[in-house]
Amino acid sequence: MMPAETGAYVAGIAFWSPRLPGWEIAAPVLAGRMPAPGAAVRRPTPALLPPTERRRAPDSVAVALEVAARACAAAELDAGQLASVFATAHGDLGITDYLCRTLVESPLQTSPTRFHNSVHNAAAGYWSIAGACHAPYTTVSVAEYSFGAGLLEALTQVATGREPVLLVAYDAPACGPLAQLVSCRGIIGAALVLAPARSAPGAAHIRWSIAGPEAAAASEAAPALAAVADDNPMAAALPLYAALAAGGGAVALPLSPTLALRLEVR
Question: What is the mean pLDDT of residues 18-28?
Fold first, then answer.
C-alpha cells in the first residue's frame, strides 16, 4: 500500500506558450520577477521532427514534442528509456473540427495525414517514433482536471516503479463550432521529468498527498497568472510552475469537484 504522503524530485522541467516560449523565459515571469513579454510566437518548431513532419504536425503534437524533448535534455536522461504520461483535455480540436467539416461537405477528400493525427494518443505516438522510445506510455484525459490527473499518474508511477517518469501536458485551441462549446484558446505545453532520487544539487522536491473538498475549492490559479493562461485547460499547471520558479510553495491542483492533489514544493 502506498503511504498517505510521498514525494518525487524534479529532474527536468520545460514550458511553452506563445508569450512564454521556454522555461528560461517563463520562470522569471511566473516567479513575479518580471512582466510577461507582449510579443507572441505562433507555435513551437520541435527539432525532434524532420522538416517535412514538423510542418505537417498539428499544434498539439508540436508543443508536446517541444516540451518533452526540452525536459529530457534538462534532466540529462535518455528519452528513449523513460516511461511517459501524456495528459490533454481535448487532444487536437483543430483536427476534430476539420474532420467534422470534411465528413459533412466532402468526405472523399478527407486527408489521411490529418485523420491519423485525430487519435487521442497522436502526440505520444509521435514521441515514441521520433524519439525512438520503447518505454511504455500512458495517455490521460479528465477534461479540466487533466493536468492534475496526469501529474498524479506520473507521481504514482515514480512512487511504485522507483524509476524516472516523463510527464507531458498540452492543449491546443478550439476552433469552429467547437469553440462555442469548449473553452480552450492559445497553446500551452508543460513537461516534467520526475525521479525518485535527487539527480542534481538544488533539484526541487515535490511532496504530495490527496486532499479533500476544502483544498479543491481553494485551488484556483492566482490572478497574477491569468495574463499568461490563454484560457487553456493546461493553465492548471501554472500554480505548480510558479512555485517551482519561486523556489518553493504549497499548491493544490483540482482532481475533481471534491478532490485535489496537494503539493509542497521545496
Answer: 94
Residue 213 lies in a domain: no
What region does 164 belong to: left with phi over 0, alpha with psi -120 to 50, or beta? Answer: beta
Give pLDDT tens digits for 213-239.
677 665 555 555 766 777 899 999 999
Q: Which DSSP helix (H) or strand (E) runs through 243?
A: helix 238-246
Model confidence over 30-46: pLDDT tens digits?
998 988 887 788 889 99
140: part of which helix (H) or strand (E)?
Answer: strand 137-140
Report how many helices (DSSP H) and strands (DSSP E) the chain contains, helices first: 9, 8
Instruction: List the CATH number of the domain containing 26.
Output: 3.40.47.10
Show Cβ contacts of residue 230 under 8 Å, excluding neighbours closer than 6 positions: 17, 18, 19, 185, 186, 187, 188
Please give the tally of structural domains in the chain: 1
